[in-house]
Design a protein that fits this description.
The chain is an alpha/beta fold and 364 residues long. The chain has 2 domains: 206 residues, Alpha-Beta Barrel (TIM Barrel); 128 residues, Lyase, Ornithine Decarboxylase, Chain A, domain 1. The chain is 28% helix and 24% strand. The strands form 3 sheets. Strands 1, 10, 13, 14, 15, 16, 17, 18 and 19 form a 9-stranded mixed β-sheet that branches. α5 links the parallel β4 and β5. α1 crosses α3, α4 packs parallel to α5 and α7 runs parallel beside α8. The longest helix has 14 residues. The mean pLDDT is 97.
């Protein structure tokens, strides 16, 4: 039989999380962000769960082609735009909308030959300082685009650096609003955190761009848990116990003897390790669910195995299910954010790090 580890994608959770974002922004259209292969879930696996979105937003042309091959005929947005001039031909062929964030991309448009005008999203750097035109240069960039026969319609966008934190979005909102106050075109401002936390951004957005919240992770953890936002986990990573050990007080577990038992205890060895995408740095005490009951990791994470405490689940044994994150068979949930917090990272990274060797199924 194959090694007993499995990731499960839950389309019903994706549908629910999309609906939750719509509830936060009832007057806006929704880009379902599926960059990074749908945050590690797989574009083909999430498509049915997200197909009620108004459009799909992603990064590269191969991802866009995959969405079109799934039968999607609606809008697709390239969030970083094109990387070289020949990409514009494929934008025309696949009917892709694309971001313009630098003068070089405007130059590419000016030089391209096309019979169909391009739909572009002009990006402002309102304080993130990654991509986009500065406020001082934004209106001149808009004027250049507006003068090009190759451009059909211009929408306006920015990205918030602190929508998930105490600094908030007020300064960036004020900057964007001032510079674009009399420019025509649809606006796209709100990522997951802005959509759920900031009504002002939602009101100013014709399009919202939820990413992480679609997949059941909180955009502002630990201030809010995913459950507090009403989000459901879209991915479950589960494995089975492949060995059981009874150890005495004073016995150590795993490489480096990082865990030492202070009393006799029963351990389960689980078929999951850092080669499967489970964080190697997870400390003793990182939560797991054993047969749906909350327990903990003990000892260092190995390449192919972790060891868990079976004390809270005396009936568990060989073949028992261990949920590393997501929803257990009995309905109990271990949020990916909690595991990520123990590892000193974010749920985003855990989703995207799922290893290719882990088999994946889509739930009915």
């Amino acid at each position: 039989m194959p090694r007993p580890i499995l990731a499960t994608i839950h389309p019903a959770a994706l549908q629910h999380n999309l609906a939750r974002n719509r509830l936060a922004a009832p007057d806006a259209k929704v880009w379902a962000v599926v960059k990074a292969n749908a945050y590690g879930h797989g574009i083909e696996r999430v498509f049915e769960g997200l197909r009620s979105a108004d459009g799909f937003a992603l990064l590269d042309l191969d991802e866009a082609r995959r969405v079109r091959e799934l039968g999607w005929r609606g809008p697709i947005l390239l969030l970083e735009g094109v990387f070289e001039a020949r990409d514009l031909e494929l934008c025309s062929r696949l009917d892709l909308w694309h971001t313009v964030h630098c003068d070089e991309q405007i130059d590419m448009l000016a030089a391209c030959k096309t019979h169909v005008g391009h739909r572009v999203f002009l990006k402002m750097n309102s304080g993130m300082n990654r991509l986009g035109f500065t406020p001082a240069c934004y209106r001149s960039a808009w004027a250049r685009l507006n003068a090009l026969p190759q451009v059909d319609e211009i929408s306006l966008m920015t990205h918030f650096s602190d929508a998930d934190g105490g600094q908030g979005i007020a300064a960036q909102m004020a900057c964007f609003s001032e510079v674009t106050r009399d420019l025509p075109g649809e606006r796209s401002l709100s990522n997951s955190a802005a959509s759920l936390r900031h009504a002002d951004a939602v009101r100013a957005s014709d399009w919202i761009r939820p990413g992480i919240s679609l997949y059941g992770s909180s955009p502002d953890h630990p201030e809010h848990w995913a459950s507090e936002w009403g989000l459901w986990p879209a991915m479950t990573l589960a494995a089975k116990i492949i060995a059981v050990r009874d150890i005495a007080a004073g016995a150590s577990v795993g490489y480096g003897s990082r865990f030492v038992a202070d009393a006799p205890m029963r351990l389960g060895v689980v078929a999951c390790g850092y080669a499967d995408g489970y964080p190697r740095v997870c400390p003793n005490g990182t939560p797991v669910l054993v047969a749906g009951v909350r327990s903990r990791l003990v000892g260092r994470v190995s390449m192919d195995m972790v060891t868990v405490d079976l004390t809270p689940v005396p009936e568990a044994g060989m073949g028992s299910e261990v949920t590393l994150w997501g929803r257990a068979a009995n309905g109990a949930v271990l949020g990916i954010d909690e595991v990520a917090q123990a590892a000193g990272t974010l749920g985003y990274e855990l989703m995207c790090a799922l290893a290719q060797r882990v088999p994946v199924q889509v739930a009915d």
